[in-house]
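Subject: sequence -> structure tokens, single chain

Hey, anyone have a minute? Need the predicted structure for the following. Not urgent.
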Amino acid sequence: MSYAQVQPTLTRAPTQQVVSNTPEQAQANKIKTILGQKVILDFRYFCHDDTPSRQCRTPMTEISPALLELLSAHNIGGVILFSENIKDVAQLITLNYTMQQHMVKKGRPPLFIAVDQEGGRVARLPATMLSPFAGNMAIGASFHQHGTAFAQNIAAHIGQTLLPLGINTNFAPSVDVNSEPKNPVINIRSFSEQPQHVAAMGEDFVKAMQRTGVISAIKHFPGHGDTYIDSHTGLPRVAHTRSQAMAGDVLPFASIINGDSAPAMVMTAHIQYPSLDNTTVMDKKGQMQTVPATLSKRIITDLLRTQLGYQGLVVTDALDMGGIAQFFEPEDAMVNAFQAGADIALMPFTIRNQNDIQEFNRFMERVAEQLRGSKEDRDMLTASHNRISKVKQRFQLQKFVGKPQSWWIDEAKARGDSLNPNSHKRKGIQLGKALSEAAVTVLYGKSKLPLTHQGWLALMPDTARCFAFESAVVKSFNTLGVGAADIQFGCLPLTALPSKRLTKRLISEASVLVVGDITPEHANYELGGLDSKESVAKRASQSEVHAFTKDMMQFAKSKDKTVVFAPLRMPYMAGEVKPFTDIAIATFSYVVTVEPGLNEVSVGQGNSPVVNSHVFNALTQVLTGQLEAQGRSPVTMTPATPESKQK
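Reply:
Had a minute. Here:
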């Protein structure tokens, strides 16, 4: 008997087992069983003591019997992993194998085991397990020269890495069309501002990912690219007309869904899109809100399923995000999402301790009670359950436990052998290098390249980027036959702003000023861990950093220095600083890898961490004439203004 034919009931206490199984009870148990399959939970942290749920920060790297019992008792459909759940190859495989094996032994369907592994800034696996790629917008910068080659190759490499680790679902790629310069959450996660380009790269990414056996989920439907609010913290609103929506935001989804390899999943966005659904609902504070896409039947059922013809699984973005959690109670959010047409609720309830497990039991009871009342809801649940079973069978999720756990560990370690030039790991390193080199883009000032000066001062967003740039500069000059002792290099991190007097003195002593910019501002957890706690605590705001760097660039220009502006994230600011810069080079990525140890190429640093970056290597090679930039910006280089969008 296949797992799809198994219809187990929930584990009951002994006193419940003597009660006759009435038709009402049978129906209730069936609904609970189906309901569990429609849930993907996170166990990012779990505390075995009495630590309050909101204070628990103990990473769950080994699953407890209580959590295993929760998975099987509620017939849970899947688990999403975060970086906190991942230490090393053996630990990760053991964790995933333990969960899947438990479900099989209990006669339950195998789990979706998911991650957000987009590449670029959204990546859960450490660099020791999967090469940190530059990301979607870097792929977009290579599009005019290489087409969809990098989208295919990187998706295939990610999928080939994930599956042997026991991860069968990847919430990627983002196919949002980034048309808002001040978008705080999508930006370089988007391939382009051109819908057709996004569609082409997204379709081939999905196809390559799913060929490896890993489920792909395109996101965030109907399109999160034209927002200036982060749905992790608020509820964005898109003001496009319906015709604009269909020709812009929705186009990549429609194209990919109707392509040769439709994605097994589509993830919804926590955004208001009035032209697609202007229905209002009452939030938990008693205020009327335009219904978010995640809870909209017009958007999920009428548009996505009926008009676009999507037959796969619809998964919500995480329901604990501010775009939903600030306005709706968890129970209401989950019920409304299902009634709107979503198949899977992602992270609808937070479980951090034993008490949360008991609360989750009651939560699921209440949701089941709400959804078993009408025939329409029961039919909806059955149809959704059938779609989930079909996808699990298609991707053969049970195959992971068909081989011994030790076999997967040996296989993953062989793939991760960095000493073997033909290993999967080494191929990933070469692929990451090639993407960074293909993406680097000269926005202006090409005629002023290469730079032959050996006295450089850099202003970088943080200490890790200073080390990465320093390492890259020394490597480049070494290649040109210039020794480290002959290089005059300094770098000031801008986490906490240095004094203007010191900075101007150093500029006066240098020949070249290079300013690296990360706009929108990167999060503290992306700093790299090399800045002092004091610097992070009093971290300068982005407006302060911009004012400081503009002042320094203008000063350098007045002293006849060569001024280079290097936007590492979005390039919009390059147009604004053009009057007092000579060269602008965009990388569309600021990924660095920080490892403890001695940095052999450091200039007079002694003990210092090894910080490597294909991105900074490519940037420096272009500056010194060792690499000709071939990238083309996927977004129009225009300065953003507060008045640019009124939504």
